[in-house]
Amino acid sequence: MNTIKKRNISVLGSTEFTGIKLEKPTDYAAGLPAVKVALQHTFKEMGVVRSFRALAHMNQKEGFDCPGCAWPDPDKPSKLGEYCENGAKALAEEATNKKVDNDFFSKYSVEELSTWSDFQIGKSGRLTEPMVLRPDSVHYEPISWENAYKLVAEELHRLDSPDEAIFYTSGRSSNEAAFLYGLFIRAYGTNNMPDCSNMCHESSGVALGETLGIGKGSVKLEDFDKAEVVMVIGQNPGTNHPRMLSALQKCKENGGKVISVNPLEEAGLIRFKNPQEVKGVLSTGTSLTDIHLQVKINQDVALLKLMIKKLTVLDTEKGNVFDHEFIKKYTNGFEELIKSIEGYSEKELLTLSGVEESVVDAAVEILANSKKIIICWAMGLTQHKNGVDNIKECVNLLLLKGSLGKPGAGTCPVRGHSNVQGDRTVGIMHHVSTELNQSIQKTFGFTPPNKEGLDTVHAIEAMHKGQAKVFMALGGNFLSAASDTNFTAEALQNCELTINVSTKLNRTHLVTGKTALILPTLGRSEVDIKDGKQRFFTVENSMGKVHRSKGMMSPASGNLKSEPEIIGEIANAYFKNNHPVPWKQLGEDYELIREKLTSVIKGFEDLEKKSKGSGFYLPNNVRDLDFSKLPNQKAQFSVCHLPKHEIKKGEFLLMTIRSHDQFNTTIYGLNDRYRGVFNERRIVLMNKNDMRKYAFEKLDVVNLISSYDNIERKAINFLVIPFNIPEGNLASYFPETNVLVPYNHFADKSNTPISKSIVISLEKVE
Ligand SMILES: Nc1nc2c(c(=O)[nH]1)N[C@H]1C(S)=C(S)[C@@H](COP(=O)(O)OP(=O)(O)OC[C@H]3O[C@@H](n4cnc5c(=O)[nH]c(N)nc54)[C@H](O)[C@@H]3O)O[C@H]1N2
Ligand SMILES: Nc1nc2c(c(=O)[nH]1)N[C@H]1C(S)=C(S)[C@@H](COP(=O)(O)OP(=O)(O)OC[C@H]3O[C@@H](n4cnc5c(=O)[nH]c(N)nc54)[C@H](O)[C@@H]3O)O[C@H]1N2
Ligand SMILES: [Mo]
């Protein structure tokens, strides 16, 4: 019998300050500084020669897909390079020359590593060999691949029910890996497939599914060339999807207008200096936003209702503001919507939104005179209690204007991880799909389970209660990404076994179950060879286009396995050849996986051939204006309610956002250049009037406190920074602030944690 050591783990790591420097926020994105910073990062991590070689292949047709965000590549990639500053940083992070090997783990215990900051942990380098943390130890030690597979298989056999295991996926995995993973999980017997989307665009999936019949966006990249208006709402493209700025620039060059809706005036939305054009780098850049609506946090529904109300008045006067032909032919619920809007007063909506009336009127005038509108959004809409309604209200606006299913118009939820959308398409989901199950049964000869599985928040709860005992993650950093860090830590620490298939070390490798495994895997940029033959895989971008990705860098270590290989081997160790699926063979032969994908997933017919070159679009019913699967075979208007917040005196609404120097929990550096914050992440942005009102000075040290269900949660040591943000609102970075987000407070229907509207108070540290 093993002894079990109670490890002394620091869940949050270092909360020390790092030496802040403040400058004026920038009013343009990209330009020369972006090129400089991109190259600094790649040179430092990868060396000069490897940097240029890799960057030349990123997002090119025969190259690899950027490991950063999911923004699509143009059909003709730029010769100056089809990547952005943050894509270059993502590459540098993955292709770094630094290594985390056995020597590293013998030197540092998990106890010591856990006291480091996420930044320090991430900068340690690439994982190079499979490692195990035994119940009686505080040091990871090497384990052979065979024994690692065996350990997983034995633990899975030991569970009383397959539902005691949780299988998480982060959106970096390829279609092939995700498909095989989902297949194994179903063959094992559970639908417990929480996914990073649960914390991300789940609200979009639910809202779009219910209103338009597909949980994905409808626009293609070329629609930006034709749009009369692009609304960017709750999204910071300058940092998180920089290549989107080129699309906005094109829209503007063709006479289109950009309206942004955001509590912050994000640099990328003001002006853009395109680093892919010589003139872009040298000139003052393109001014991108025509109208900025500085909405208060979570008051988008109020603002959208106000705009719809004003448009309704104009439509009654002029008669041609709404597309009545479209409304009649394709939609359901118009009268109910208009009636419900009549119930609100303009004054009430205006006050709630926090925007000046003249600015709203200017936006309404543009919308009234346009027929081709695209609405783009991201986490600023999804991560609220009413996240689903936020998006439904956007759909209402598009339906009223007939801005769907035609060039230059439509929905554009801008996805996060580079293949998060593809993972879902190929079967990573906790819901049961009868169609998918039947298709799997027909192709593979086994019956998948038909009990609903657990999503992220419910998986945490199950582990916390001891109802789930094995946690496996295909990528990601579950501990830091999920809400309620301390609660999530207890949940993971309750497990018998935690398994992480990862490229880089992160906090989830340190806050573990009794036994923990690190299974190191190849990154996107790395060459993947089997029996002398180079393998490639496929991914789906944010606009539903599937294409190939083929790495070219030499792998970080000779002892890495690809994700499909690892999954195939685990499945093989579990089933011991006693199963109709040829697991081992599938794990090694991606062509065979694609053949199966072709027969199981609709739209993937002929995948091997069609994925060549710039790839192919998956079917999309909104593009075809086919709403046959919805009630009355029509697109649905929705009546949405205003969100309710009980905010007492001294309390604020906090949004937890990304700095310009991170990819989710991977911290590239400590500089949020556009916001003028350097060398520090423990900051909270506050309106000057609030500072005056509550007697805060610049750089005062405060603790942030949330109090839900009478439980106090505290994030300590943050510096107050005066900023252009609405009164009553605060902004701070995630993951440091995830301790404040209660695990049991999430969006209705989508269960996405409320990371963008947390009620908090501040405590001054003297
Ligand atoms: N470089 C880089 N790229 C990334 C990522 C990264 O971390 N780094 N992450 C990737 C992932 S997984 C995702 S999901 C995306 C995230 O992309 P974003 O959603 O752009 O990321 P956030 O920083 O969370 O920014 C949310 C934006 O919404 C605004 N906002 C917050 N609350 C509200 C609100 O109530 N209403 C409105 N209108 N706006 C609001 C904030 O001010 C901010 O500008 O980016 C992807 N790309
Ligand atoms: N408070 C707050 N919390 C949030 C958010 C927020 O805005 N506020 N945003 C949420 C969102 S939108 C998301 S998507 C989640 C992100 O949640 P996750 O996807 O779980 O987190 P990441 O930080 O993207 O995961 C980074 C890790 O993935 C691993 N990795 C990188 N590349 C690969 C690969 O190719 N293969 C494998 N196997 N592993 C790889 C590395 O080990 C790295 O440490 O966080 C959510 N959490
Ligand atoms: Mo995301």
TrEMBL record:
Domain Molybdopterin dinucleotide-binding as annotated: residue spans: 652-756
Transmembrane segments: none
Taxonomic superkingdom: Bacteria
Entry keyword set: Iron, Iron-sulfur, Metal-binding
Biological processes per GO annotation: cellular respiration
Domain Molybdopterin oxidoreductase span(s) in chain numbering: 126-572
One GO MF term: formate dehydrogenase (NAD+) activity
Pfam families referenced in this protein's UniProt entry, alphabetically: Molybdopterin, Molydop_binding
GO cellular component: a single term: membrane
UniProt protein name: Molybdopterin oxidoreductase domain-containing protein
